[in-house]
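Box 4.2: Ligand-aware structure prediction
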Amino acid sequence: MPTTDEGMTGTILVCDGCGRSRRTSATGLFAWDLLWLQADQAGWTGSDRPLGPHYCTICADNE
Ligand SMILES: [Zn+2]
């Protein structure tokens, strides 16, 4: 397994409201789908596309 810059590995979901993030070590097309599915079930709202915007449970409650 090659090592790269830490910020470049895996897939990350960042809240556009407060910057909270969720991360998975997986990469590729299905990594985002899985990450968003888990976030959605946890209460995140927003676009299901990687570009967003996305809002975490706290920001979703404040809207
Ligand atoms: Zn937030």
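In the box above, the bound molecule is zinc ion. The two ends are 42 Å apart (CA to CA).
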